[in-house]
Every structure is written in C-alpha cells, then in structure tokens.
Amino acid sequence: MEITKATILDLNALRKLEKESFAKDAWPLLDLIAVLTFPNVIRFKATEDNQMIGFIAGDPRPNDGWGWVATIAVDPRFRLRGIGRALLHACEKELGVPRVRLTVRTSNQGAITMYEKEGYQTIDIWQNYYNDGEPAMVMEKVL
Ligand SMILES: CC(C)(COP(=O)(O)OP(=O)(O)OC[C@H]1O[C@@H](n2cnc3c(N)ncnc32)[C@H](O)[C@@H]1OP(=O)(O)O)[C@@H](O)C(=O)NCCC(=O)NCCS
Q1: CB within 6 Å of ligand 1 — which residues?
Q2: In what order do the strands lie in the sheet with 42-48?
Q3: How far is ligand 1, taken at its centre, from the CA of residue 142, in Å?
Q4: From the CA of 53, how far away is ligand 1's center (Å)?
Q5: Nearest atom within ligand 1 for CA of residue 114
C-alpha cells in the first residue's frame, strides 16, 4: 500500500469510493472536482496495485490555528488494515497546523473509534448538521 498525492486524474476512482463509502453523504461531482483541484487543499490517496483504495482531504486554516479533515474513506474491502490511520497521519503532517478538527455523524461508531484511538477528543456537538438532521460530533486532536 502506498500513500501519494491525489490529482484530478483520480476523479473516477474517487467517485466510486465516495459512493461505496457514504450511503447518505456522497459528495456531488462538483465538490469532488473542487477537492481534487482547489489550491491549498491537501489530498492523499492510498493505492494498491495502482488502484485507489482510500482517500483523505484536508483544509488548512492557519489563521485559526487549526485545519479540518474534510473527508476520509477507505474501500470497504480494505478496511481494518491501518489504511485510514495512515491517511490521517499523512494529512495531519501536511496540514502544518497545531490542531486538527473534523466532524463525524454521532452514529458513525467505527469512525469515532478510529478517531479516539488516534487521539481526537469531542469538543462540540452541532445539532442538525447533516442533511437528514443527524447531529455532528466535532472532534479535535492537538498534534
Ligand atoms: C472510518 C474509516 C475511514 C476507517 O478506515 P480503516 O482503514 O478501516 O481504519 P484503520 O484500519 O486504520 O483503523 C484504525 C483503528 O481504528 C479502529 N477502527 C477502524 N474502524 C473501526 C470500526 N468500524 N469498528 C471498530 N474499530 C474500528 C481499528 O480497529 C484500528 O484500531 P487498532 O489498530 O487498535 O485495531 C472507514 O471505516 C471508512 O471509510 N468508513 C466509511 C466512510 C466514513 O465513515 N468516513 C468517516 C467520515 S467522518
């Protein structure tokens, strides 16, 4: 497994990964194009045999003192092998800010477990954050 920077050439693979990973929240095409092209966005892919098996994007906000993990997903066939953790580490390092924040559905116990094991703590709850009304946990890691 390799972790390298993602580019617009990864658009089709990313669309597939998003659909497989986010039943309710898959990003629309325009957002996927944006995340693969906007300057300052951090984007890494995990690949095996040149196939994308994971993706992470980060949004550095140095003026705030933190950055955001915007999305993270691992191909369901490759989960629980440390790929999500490796993507998180790559993103945290590249963000170049002292604190990293993210939002997660309160029902997404798998992702919450990973974040807690990686040192993220819940700092806030945002009610009605997701399109179906589910609240978000806001989690933060001090690097
Ligand atoms: C969340 C996600 C990215 C985790 O990726 P992953 O590659 O399976 O995670 P890792 O293998 O690196 O796991 C890291 C640690 O978290 C734990 N963990 C990860 N997923 C877990 C789950 N579903 N249940 C329990 N523990 C879990 C692992 O056991 C591991 O801990 P360990 O090393 O002590 O055993 C993946 O499940 C996914 O893509 N989910 C769908 C998309 C999603 O929900 N993204 C997050 C949105 S906020």
Answers
A1: 21-22, 72-74, 79-85, 104, 108, 110-111, 113-114, 117
A2: 2-5, 42-48, 51-61, 66-74, 99-105, 136-142, 121-126
A3: 20
A4: 13
A5: 16
Q: What is the mean pLDDT of residues 117-126?
A: 98
Confidence check: pLDDT of 23 > 90: no
Per-residue pLDDT at 24: 85
For residue 25, name the pLDDT band (cuts at 50, 70, 90): confident
Give 82 Cα–ligand 1 centroid separation in angstroms: 8
pTM: 0.97
Query: Residue 95: which of 64, 120, 118 has the closest Cα?
Result: 64
- Res 143: pLDDT: 94
Domain map (residue ranges) of the chain: 2-142
Averaged pLDDT score across all residues of the chain: 97
- What is the rounded distance in angstroms from the CA atom of residue 109 to the CA atom of residue 47? 25
* Three-state DSSP class for residue 125: strand
Nearest CA among 40, 39, 32, 30 for reference residue 11: 32
- Specify the fold of 2-142: Aminopeptidase (3.40.630)
